[in-house]
């Protein structure tokens, strides 16, 4: 849930002012990951004049640490105030410098400077750490360190890490091991940590060095060299020692967003890897915890790892707001383009004699296994769960395989049954959702075929599943997911098409869906024209405290997701309800004051009615009879019952159906374009996204950074 960032310039002159700006901008790019407090650490003096020397005991000055409650701009303001108060020279130039930064989403301890990162080993700032994740055994470690004389100032789980590093370092020196390296200290610390983490270490004992390591939480290394020496080359200790005179700038980040403006050459750090930045070199060691517990020592050097740089497939423009006021607004209006990118190269229309098909390269070798599955299990959290729920009916219809839904945390809590014959589909925008990752481990242990659907290339889910599909929705920075949701549904519809491609009886249905997918971006452009209408509706609802949303069939998921959007950004209580359950409790809430949205677009719930209408159309051709038959739909029954109780209704229907779903007026109607029933949730969610956005702005809340939330949920 937090964002960590580091910047090391080697043999590249940079003023302190520039170093601060790089760190601040890195945090701004990561602020969606947490924004209740932040902090940075930079050097007080030029560490190059203070090489570590155990023989004479020389030690570089303590690094400066700035921490502040609030968002990044609060930190920036406090830093420059302290710069003025202490007369810190911002023009001072550093040939080599290592700085670290952190933006926090509170898990242990309230938002406050003492709980902000970097966390320190003590008053001398001998070791500093920024951390994303949760250390599950921190209480045991804390008790041990307290017995050894350490005092704790924060309520965080992170503070045990730098103090443990100092304990390891001091103990090594007491034992006469005055040549203990930074990587040896960090490896020893890692042997004692349990939980999920991405860590960056900085120490005055090892000036101008940084060490990064991870387990579960994401971390990337970016490399910027003026002469592009390492373009396409592999990292290896010996190779990089030959290049230590090359000027370079190195970046560590939780996300590519903070790196792409500096370089596109990156390395995705794997679990268990320890990346040591020293004298312009990058050394990668593999941490082996089992070896350490079975008699390993600091003197036993871990195996070095050879890795290759990759190139980021993104542009700086993707992470800027452009002409929009907020990221959420931008991402809502980007959905025609994001869907086009999601579908590109995956839909094959063929000629007049060729069948229309879907090509998902990441799945083609596993489709036969999926078709033979005992069942298909969708696992996700929040918006990703809702997207999977929207796709469940078409998956069952086309595949002929039973489909079950699981919320990741609930599956883990009850240790739900997963069989070897199951195909388990993990849906996550970030690919790093903590509960979903634990569910993935659980499914792998049980021998199931695991499929990943993510928006993040190189994420943990993308790497650890047997196969999968990237949704290619583009960078999503607003905390409330919008374009990722619609792309997820589109991808899962294509997954259903691919699995059911061998069923001749469903050929016509599949081709109709493929045609609908081709036209889907245009339908989204059409529904986005409701922007002003939804803003007007938001003005009517601005003072309301609650909102109910009823849906069924494909649009039960739309009701859940629409209510979630309003809830998470507009801070209005809203509840998505299965319309068939209305009479089993929710009807008691209905009165003339409570606003209620009913989703009554043409979908599976209209299918029988439309069949009857077509069957008798030759005999009953008048508009009155057609209206009569439409009015027998299940959702129409819901509307009638709500109106009978003077419900304050807002009805979403297909274009041209306003008079049918709400005869005689008396309710507000939102008309949306009609598409294939399984794709209707993609269209129907857009008005809810617009409504949630405008409600939030009109209420004066931060739409991109809703209260108490963060984008990537990397803690349980």
Automatic annotation (TrEMBL):
Domain Glutamine amidotransferase type-2: 2-280
The UniProt record lists the keyword Repeat: yes
Signal sequence coordinates: none
Pathway: Nucleotide-sugar biosynthesis; UDP-N-acetyl-alpha-D-glucosamine biosynthesis; alpha-D-glucosamine 6-phosphate from D-fructose 6-phosphate: step 1/1
Keyword Repeat attached: yes
The reaction(s) this protein catalyses: D-fructose 6-phosphate + L-glutamine = D-glucosamine 6-phosphate + L-glutamate
Entries under Pfam families matching the protein: GATase_6, SIS
EC number: 2.6.1.16
Domain SIS, chain residue ranges per copy: 366-505, 537-706
Top-rank taxon: Eukaryota
UniProt enzyme class: transferase
Keywords linked to the UniProt accession: Aminotransferase, Glutamine amidotransferase, Repeat, Transferase
GO terms, molecular function: carbohydrate derivative binding; glutamine-fructose-6-phosphate transaminase (isomerizing) activity
Gene Ontology annotations of biological process type: fructose 6-phosphate metabolic process; protein N-linked glycosylation; UDP-N-acetylglucosamine metabolic process
PANTHER family referenced in this protein's UniProt entry, alphabetically: GLUCOSAMINE--FRUCTOSE-6-PHOSPHATE AMINOTRANSFERASE, ISOMERIZING (PTHR10937), GLUTAMINE--FRUCTOSE-6-PHOSPHATE TRANSAMINASE (ISOMERIZING) (PTHR10937:SF0)
Protein name: glutamine--fructose-6-phosphate transaminase (isomerizing)
Biological source species: Hibiscus syriacus (Rose of Sharon)
Record lineage: Eukaryota, Viridiplantae, Streptophyta, Embryophyta, Tracheophyta
